[in-house]
Design a protein that fits this description.
- The protein is about 35% helix and about 30% strand.
- The radius of gyration is 22 Å and the shape is globular.
- The chain is α+β, with helices and mostly antiparallel strands.
- Strand 9 and strand 10 form a beta hairpin.
- It has a domain of about 200 residues: FAD/NAD(P)-binding domain, CATH 3.50.50.
- The structure holds flavin-adenine dinucleotide (FAD).
- The site of flavin-adenine dinucleotide has 34 residues, from helix 1, strand 3, strand 9, helix 5 and strand 12.
């Protein structure tokens, strides 16, 4: 006989883990929640301290204020703070043109405009929080390789550690942008390739970043440098996300450190002094992926599997966190009223409540890079004015900052 679970989350990336933590927090303790992840999760560590030696190989995420509220709600924020670098200012500029804008947290009476964390730290901290919480069953390394609805429940086939099959009231598809499960379930998705790669690396500078994030638009694409916390041996570090053509990404990945730093210095300039060191470089092909159908009886699609965005505005993960907080809230109240976790109307209510946030955030992330890459001189002039306008028009600037913080999307 098949083993039964109430909720199975397929995919233990940062979204799947955060959802598991949230569900365990708000659902009755009798709910059997299970998280299946393809890679082996790190073991529990004494003292709840993630085992990660700071190296120059990590991708970073800019967490917005809305994400801070969610991790505060889960009681994780205090612990996460040790890995975070607050963003005090955002400097937006356009290479070779006059427009630039400076946004300061203090101008809005906020403690920070966002918080940058290396994914390795964030991911490990979240896994350790799951171990500590002890309310979610972890099956890893294992993959959900088949899923279908039969007799009102999701029938799941698994490969790897643990059971070969499970049945579940609700399957959460959180297996990333190239979601195999989305395809297996016949959930249509659209993909709009941007024809660009994001080149990611950590870079050490001669001068301190002083909590400043740089967003620089060049004719090739946007280039962001996010402030990182200091580590021994590399005090002044920033996380680079550099959007370039695929062939350029390949060249920049293969060239020597010196050649790379010279090319980057030429693009970015000397605002943080001379670049001294670069870590491992990784490239990610960029496209906008949207799942046309996000809910079905017994199925909900989350995170990158639901929507993978251009990283320029740092919105993808923040949006996914708002989605999962809403899903957990809607599920909690519906289960309290006696509904089953996979109830279609409950899932549709979640989708309805997040629709506007998703549409606005996806549009914002999609438009920004194309606006700033447009070769048309009229558009070029408009964006210069928009940038200088941002610096002189407090209301407009406030709108931009609210968006970056995720507050606009929360409707506050
Ligand atoms: C360069 C770059 C920079 C970014 N910067 C930011 C930022 O600053 N701010 C921000 O908000 N967002 C940012 N993002 C977006 C953010 O990285 C994503 O939103 C986030 O990683 C999505 O996580 P996920 O868990 O949905 O997917 P993934 O991280 O892809 O995780 C999916 C997981 O599912 C597992 N899996 C796959 N198939 C199966 C299966 N069949 N069974 C079980 N497990 C399976 C995989 O092993 C993986 O662990 C950035 C993205 C990029 C590319």
């Amino acid at each position: 006989m098949k083993q039964h679970r109430d909720i199975v989350i397929a995919g233990g990336g940062m979204v799947g883990i955060s959802l598991a933590l949230y569900l365990a927090e708000v659902l009755p303790a009798s709910m059997r929640i299970c998280l299946v992840e393809g890679f082996a999760f790190p073991d529990p560590l004494p003292g709840h301290r993630p085992d990660y030696h700071p190296a120059f190989d990590a991708r970073s995420t800019a967490l917005s204020y809305s994400s801070r509220l969610i991790y505060e709600r889960l009681g994780l924020w205090d612990d996460l703070q040790q890995w975070l670098c607050p963003i005090d200012t955002i400097h937006v500029s356009n290479r070779g043109r006059f427009g630039s804008a400076l946004m300061r947290a203090e101008d809005y009476g906020w403690p920070a405009l966002g918080y940058v964390v290396e994914n390795a730290w964030l991911g490990n901290s979240l896994v350790q929080a799951l171990h500590k919480q002890g309310a979610v069953e972890l099956i890893s390394p294992a993959r959900v390789v088949g899923a279908r609805m039969e007799s009102g429940r999701m029938q799941l086939d698994l490969e790897g550690e643990g059971p070969d099959s499970l049945d579940a009231e609700l399957l959460v598809v959180a297996d990333g942008a190239a979601s195999g499960l989305r395809e297996k379930l016949g959930l249509a998705a659209t993909e709009k390739p941007y024809g660009q790669h994001a080149l990611v690396a950590n870079v050490a500078f001669a001068r301190p970043h002083k909590g400043c994030a740089f967003e620089r638009f060049t004719e090739q694409g946007p280039l962001a440098l996010l402030p990182l916390m200091s580590v021994p041996g590399a005090e002044h570090r920033s996380g680079l996300v550099w959007t370039v053509a695929p062939s350029e990404a390949e060249r920049l990945q293969q060239c020597s450190d010196q050649e790379f730093l010279a090319a980057l210095q030429e693009r970015f300039g000397y605002r943080l002094g001379r670049m001294q060191q670069v870590g491992e470089r990784h490239a990610y092909p960029l496209s906008l992926v949207k799942s046309g159908e996000q809910v079905r009886q017994g199925v909900v699609v989350m995170g990158n599997a639901a929507h993978a965005l251009h990283p320029v505005a740092g919105q993808g993960y923040n949006l996914a966190l708002r989605d999962l907080a809403e899903l957990a809230t809607v599920l909690a109240s519906s289960i309290e009223q006696g509904q089953r976790p996979g109830d279609l109307r409950t899932l549709q209510r979640y989708e309805e409540r997040q629709r506007q946030d998703q549409q606005r955030t996806i549009e914002f992330s999609d438009r920004l890079p194309s606006l700033f890459m447009a070769g048309d001189p009229v558009v070029g002039l408009a964006r210069d004015l928009a940038l200088s306008g941002l610096d002189v028009l407090p209301a407009l600037k406030r709108g931009f900052v609210d968006y970056a913080a995720g507050v606009a999307a929360m409707g506050e």
